[in-house]
Each structure stands twice: as C-alpha cells, then as structure tokens.
Amino acid sequence: MLNEVLPGLGQVEDSKGAGDRRSSIEPAQPLHSVPARPVAADAVTEMREAILGKLAFAIGRSPANARERDWYAATALALRDRIVEACVASDAAVPNKRVYYLSLEFLIGRLTSDALNNLGLFETTKAALAQLGVALEDVEAAEPDAALGNGGLGRLAACFMESMASLSIPAIGYGIRYDHGLFRQSLEDGWQREAPETWLAEGNPWEFARPEATYTIGFGGSVTMSMASEGVIRRHWAPAETVKAVAYDVPVVGWRGRHVNTLRLWKAEAESAIDLARFNDGDHVGAVAARARAEAISRVLYPSDSSPAGQELRLRQEYFFTSASIQDLVRRHVAERGDVRSLADHAAIQLNDTHPAIAVPELMRVLLEDHALGWEDAWDVTTRTLSYTNHTLLPEALETWPVELMERLLPRHMQIIYLINWMHLEERGKSGQGGAEHLAAVSLIDETHGRRVRMGHLAFHGSRRVNGVSALHTDLMRSTVFKDLHALDPDKIVNKTNGITFRRWLHNANPELTALAVEAVGPGVLDDPSLLRGLDAFARDSEFVRRYAAVRRGRKEALAVIVSERTGIDIDPSALFDVQIKRIHEYKRQLLNILETVALYQAIKAEPHRDWTPRVKIFAGKAAPSYVRAKLIIKLACDVARAVNDDPEVAGRLKVAFLPNYSVSLAEAIIPAADLSEQISTAGMEASGTGNMKLALNGALTVGTLDGANVEIREHVGPENIFIFGLTAAEVLDRMQEPGYAQAAIRQSPRLAAVLDMIASGRLSPEDPGRYRALVDDLRYRDQYLLTVDFDDYWRAQREIDRAWAEPKAWWAKAVHNTARMAWFSSDRSMREYAEEIWRVRVA
Q1: For position 387, which CATH number holds?
Q2: Mean pLDDT across the stretch 530-535?
Q3: How many Cα atoms within 13 Å fall on the side-chain side of residue 398?
Q4: To which H or E segment does residue 795 belong?
C-alpha cells in the first residue's frame, strides 16, 4: 500500500550526499506538481476501479453525470476502505492503557489530503483519477471543511489526534458532531455576516454511524435517597428530560498508515422522533417540538451565550458530550477489564480546557450510582484518571456557570460539587489554612459575582495533573489564576508546550519545501522532524537558498490568485507578504496591526518619493457573532483597505486585503506564502499559539511580543532570526497599575496621535464619520490591551523588518534557520511528553 515516499515529493535518493540531491523545482510551479516517483500500473488500476465501484454502487452515479462532489465522495470511500483493516485491528486490540481526549472542538478541516499523505497514496490516486478525466485538485477542493472548532483550541486537538495515531498511542477523541460548524463568514461592505456552515449537507463519507453506541443523557429533574445498607445512603437522579447521544466514528490515520485511532463524535437525538398523538390532533409543529429541542444540542458550534437561553444551550452541549463520553469509556473499560476500580490503571482522560470540566462530577456520579463505589474510592479513581489542560488566563474565558442554572439543569452534579467543595474547604481549615479570604479564593463557588461555579477550579481539584501549553503560560498559571490552588499542591501544574503536526503543516501544506528538505537532509526527515535541523547548514548554500526562495515565490503567486478571486484585490508576489491570520479578538491585537498600517499609509503619503518597502498586509479571521468590538475591527480593516488600495500615491508600496471565511484549507494556502508572521498579542494573554509555529516552520519570520510560545520560538530559532517588541508580561502587569498610561503613551507619540485622529475624524469612513469614535476613545482612556503603550516599539520593529527585507540573502538565511529550528515544535514531541509524564502511556 505504502509504495510512495510522500505525495508530490518526487523520487528520493538517500544514498547520495546532500550536495548531490537536487530537485527540479521551478519558481512558479503549481501545487503538487513536483516530478513524482513512478507508481505501479497495477496499483493505479486497482485504485481507479475502486473509485469507479464506489461511484456506481455507493453514490449511484455514472462517470458521465458525476459531479466533483460525487468524485470526492467516491474517492474518500475508496480510501476509507484502505483504512478499515487497520481500524478493525486497532478496535480489536486491548491496549494496556488508552487515552481519551475530550474536546468541545476538533478543527479537522478536510480529511482527504491527510489520508492521501499519511497513506502514501497521493500519486496513485492522482494517476487513477487522471485516467478517469478528473483532477485530484478538484476532488480535494470539493470536500467541505469540517469546521468543528473556532481556532487554535480545535486545531490543536486535531493535531494531537493525528500525532497520537502516528506514534501508535491508543486513543479515542470525543467531541460533538455539529450539524453546522463554525459559521460561514462573508463580508458585506466590510461588515461580517454569518451564515450556517453546511458541511454535512451531503453527508460525510469519512464517518461510520455507530447506532449501537447510544447513551441516554439527562437534564433537570430531582434527586432521591435510599438506604442501600446500614449506614450507606444512595442517591438517585431522576431526570425530567432525556436525550440520546448517538456515536459517529471518524478514523484518524497515522503516518504511513501504521496505526488508526478513532474520533467519536456525538449527535443529539430525541427519545421519540415525533409525538404521534399530538400530530394526529393537528398540532403538527408541537408534535416535533421535543425533537427540535433535543437536536438543538448538536446543531451549532458555540451558540451565542449572550442570553440566558444561549447560556443554557452551551451548558447542555458541554454536559451532553461529556456524559456520553464518560459513559462510553467506562462501559468499554468494564467490558475489557471487569472492575471499574482499575479505570485509572488503564485509562487516561484529558480535558481540553474547561468545556468538559463537568467530567469531574459526572465520573463521580457514574461511579457512585451506576457502580456503587463509596465516595472515597470514587474520588480516588476520578482524581487518578482525569487531567486538565488550561488554555487561557483571560478571566472571561475561564468558564463559570450560575449556580441557579446548574442546580436546575444538573441537580445531582451540583450536590456532588457542593460535597467536593465542602470536603476541600474542611481540609483547608484543619490544616490551618482556613482564613476567609483564602477559602474564598480556593472555593469552587465564586460568591462575588452572584454565586457561580468555577469550572477551572473544579477541573483543577478533580485532576491528577494540570498543564499549561507554553513555558510562560504555565508560569503565569502558577502565579495568577491558580496561584492559591498551586500553593496547596505545588506538583500538580506542569508544562506541556503545544506543537503542530508536520504531516499536515509542512508535508501536505508545502510539498515543494518538503521535497527540498528531503533532498538536502535525506528522506528520514519525513519520519523524524528533528532531522530538519540539518537544514541549518544550507542557510549558507546560495543555490539551496535560491531554490528555497523560489518555492516561496511559487506559493505567493498561488496566494495572489486566491486573493484576487476572493476580494478583487490584485497583489504583487514580489512584495513582502505580512500576514495575521487568527480569530479576531482584542487581546490578539489585530487593531495594533491596523494602527501601524494607517501610520505607514500616512508616512508614504507624506514622503511619496522615499524608497518604501513594498508590503501586502493580509488579514483573515472570524469574530464571534456577539462580539461587537471584534466585528468593528474587521470593518475598520476593510475601510483601511479601501482607502489604501484606492490611493494612487501608495500604489505598489502598500496593499491591504481581508480574506473572508478563514478555514483550515485557506490557512494551508496562506501559511506557505507568508513572509512575515504577526504574533502581537499583549504579553501574558496568549497561552501558546500554534499559528506562530506553522508560519515559522514554513519560513515566515515572526514579529511578536514575548507572549505564549513566542518565548520558546525565540529560544529555538535564535534572537537574530525573530523580531521582538513590546512590554514583557511582567511589565504589562506593572504598567496596568499606572494611572493614565494610555494618555501618556499617546502624548509621547505624535505618530500614534495622528493615526487616532484620522480614524476618529471619519476620514476612513466618510459615509459614517462617527463609526470609530468610541473605538478610539477606548484606546485613549482605557486601552486594556496596551496597544498605545506598545505602538512605537511595534513601529520600530516593522521598520527593522523593512531593512531586513532589503537584504535578500540575509532574509532567506533567516527563513531557512526558522524552518530548520522549528523541529522541536512538532506535536509528536508534545504527545510523547503527555504520554510519558501525564498519561503514563508507553509510546511505541
């Protein structure tokens, strides 16, 4: 099956020295057009017949009337058949320990390219389709992005699942099979508009329905007590409402097809599809009301929680998938091992952020009620089985739920939470740590904001290990949000810096650069990312650097076509491509980038005859539907683009483009084409970042603050190969204590003052002059993310970048060093660390 080195890489010869391995990559070749290793004719014939068979018997189409979507489905089904044997083997084996990864998001994107890459079937499938008159690129493009996540959290979960499969770590991912993933974004006159993402409209050929894996999920109701034996009281939850969680499995194939794991996604269904009596009485809408209410749980990713009804639906989603997952994994363990008391010895449950934190009382409930364990035994099993990954220090992102809502929706769980909290606080009191202020800080119930359950605290208490996702983030966890809890258990918090799967973000996203790396350091780099470090020596090889730059040029030309098609803006591939692509949020500071763009625009206008560095600013990202300020920032970016792009005085020196509907597949087009990676969040607010890793791996130089994983990226690539600016996390905290810091920064920066005046005056929005007045006033008098304080140093860093771009030889050497030295940021390394130090699972 694995008869190819890697899709699109061409022949690899590992018997020659690095200087002898030269490919025929040309500057402007289209994607995947690297000369390919010949494939066996019988393999091509077999794949062609498999695709034709699926087209006829699974899709019900003939080649003459098949659409691209039909060819995609037939190809996916043919590939899926190649995975099934490994799937069955993985399911049949009973590993000593299995990892269960619970995440509300899995931003898996398109799966066909991943399967082709990891199975080594790209060239075989491409040739088979070509014989049928079909282009593989068109088949890949017909697959909808599975947008089952919002951003880095969901993409990280997808990378981790792929790495666990590649490392043969037995694992099952658990999430929700959303009917509509993250919304489809369009821009109407620069304003974000949301529409449903209909990725399941024509089904998902990659999934297997598992109706036999169906569980009942309860909500509301009451709790009763009974005497199980003398002195032993059992509580029984009688939910007022129940829904069904039905499993759908998506195979996650590892590198070279050696191991396959499962991503199990839950769909919500009503216990009864229709109330037939009500329907026959003429109440046709009311007859399906219960079904609509149940199915709403898995209808949409992240429903707005700006209303009480939205908050309740969000909590229902979190409990729904967590309960189904806990029931499923406990049932599997009992079937395999017999005794639930050994769960921690054979299962490791990882909670990806606070969304599945309700797993703490849910696992307790299952152990207490369904398996009749005593409290101490249940708590011991729970706290040895669960671990929790924290992804944020922002107070608004650390989930809390109103006690009233929890008591009404999950009454049994609130009883368990109260008891966990009482025992915890009682223990603090006995140890002499019972001061009121201290107890309030470590309590699971926040009494200062209307009584709310602190889900981060709950996850912390119920977990064996709690990890941060970068060295800086972990240190800040210990000293800020979990300071008091950390003091009680200093060994619980550990660091596990995030990583990305190189199969997706280098091999698949940038096959030309991968081919160049294979030529230079040998084919072993495909299996061992650490061998990328061998590229360091080639930063001084003028021929290698020329070809490295040629690869980038080809990707920039391809991206220029996409930008033109999607925005109508023509951009010059020879310009510096300055990229900021991520979720739109004030702490990520897209607004700081926009302010610098306006300042650069003003500077070019003031001195049009200067030798300005040609620059294209590329933005992409989605704002949450209820996040008004983030939507306004998108509109400002579009207004700035309109002003800059229409001004003949800056022609050829500055362009701005906001690409709508950011997705995994769009990222795969942008990242290999980026020259500059904007990672400019306020120091101390970005937990890690993974976009920074993907861009640096593909050779983009980073301009950023010392925030999240930027700190470790600087350590690995070298301070001379990254552009750092702004306050440190400690300096941010200090500056926030100074009154009037924003006004002082603006007074000291005439350039910034001129930018704010221009935006506030309405010159960028003449049809609505007051549109940005409140935005500017917030910067002048509040500025909680310190844009004004960091602005001048950001401007300095950008002009340093201009000077560096003017020295191509030195620039491309820096780019090569970035690619070579990013090997440590592989998610394979992350997963090995989790396996060895948190899950205690052996890696093959």
Answers
A1: 3.40.50.2000
A2: 97
A3: 24
A4: helix 787-805
- Is the torsion defined by CA of 482, 485, 489, 492 positive or negative? negative
Confidence band (pLDDT; 50, 70, 90) for 274? confident
- Do 711 and 791 belong together in one domain? yes
Catalytic residues: 391, 582-583, 588, 690, 694
Domain membership of residue 43 as a residue range: 39-93+120-141
In the 8-state DSSP scheme, what is residue 492? Answer: S
In this structure, is residue 834 part of a structural domain? no
Q: Which of 498, 530, 564 is the last residue of a domain?
A: 498
* CB burial string 64-91: b at 16+ within 10 A, e below: eebeebbbbbbbbbbbbebbeebbeebe
The angle formed by the CA atoms of residues 295, 300 and 301, to the nearest 5 degrees, is: 130
159 and 183 share one domain: yes
Q: For the chain, what percentages of helix, strand and coil (3-state, to nearest 5) are there?
A: 50, 15, 30
37: confidence class by pLDDT, cuts 50, 70, 90: low
- pLDDT (tens digit per residue) in 510-525: 999 999 999 999 999 9
Beta strand pairing call for 347-352 and 465-468: unpaired
DSSP, res 765: -
pLDDT band at 280 (very low <50, low <70, confident <90, very high): confident
Q: Report the C-alpha gap between 296 and 290 in whole angstroms.
A: 10
- 201 and 61 belong to one structural domain: no
Contact 540, 813 (CB under 8 A): yes
| Phi/psi at 723 (5° precision) | -115, 110
Task: Identify the DSSP state of 370.
Answer: I
- For the whole model, what pTM was predicted? 0.94
Upper half-sphere CA count for residue 442 (Cβ side, 13 Å): 24
Residues 55 and 200 in one domain: no
Classify residue 542: in a domain, yes or no. Answer: no
H-type alpha helices, 481-627: 483-488, 502, 511-521, 542-567, 590-606
Do 618 and 736 belong together in one domain?
A: yes
pLDDT tens, 290-333? 899 999 999 999 888 888 999 999 999 999 999 999 999 999 99
72 in the same domain as 176? no
Residue 420: what are its φ and ψ, rounded to 5°? -55, -45
User: Is the pLDDT confidence value at 9 over 60?
Assistant: no
Residue 406's H or E segment, with its range, is helix 403-409
Query: Residue 346 and residue 99: Cα distance in Å, rounded?
Result: 9
**195 and 137 belong to one structural domain:** no
742 touches 788 (CB < 8 A): yes
Q: CB-based contacts of 688: which residues, under 8 Å, 6+ apart?
A: 152, 391, 469, 470, 473, 497, 498, 708, 709
- Rounded Cα gap, residues 429 and 440, in angstroms: 12
Instruction: Give the number of C-alpha atoms closer than 13 A to the C-alpha of residue 554, restricted to the C-beta side.
Output: 20
Look at residues 476, 498, 520 and tell me which one is the last residue of a structural domain: 498
End-to-end CA distance of the chain: 22
Sign of CA dihedral 391, 392, 397, 398: positive
Residues 656 and 786 in one domain: yes
Distance CA 170, CA 86 (A): 12
CB 318 within 8 A of CB 361: no
Tally of domains within the chain: 3
Q: What is the C-alpha to C-alpha distance for residues 96 and 519, in angstroms, rounded to an integer?
A: 40
Instruction: Provide the 3-class DSSP secondary structure of residue 399.
Output: coil
Question: Does residue 637 lie in a domain region?
Answer: yes
Over the stretch 191-218, which tens digit does the pLDDT of each residue have?
999 999 999 999 999 999 999 999 999 9
Torsion (CA) 317, 320, 326, 332 in degrees, nearest 10: -120
Does 756 fall in a domain?
A: yes
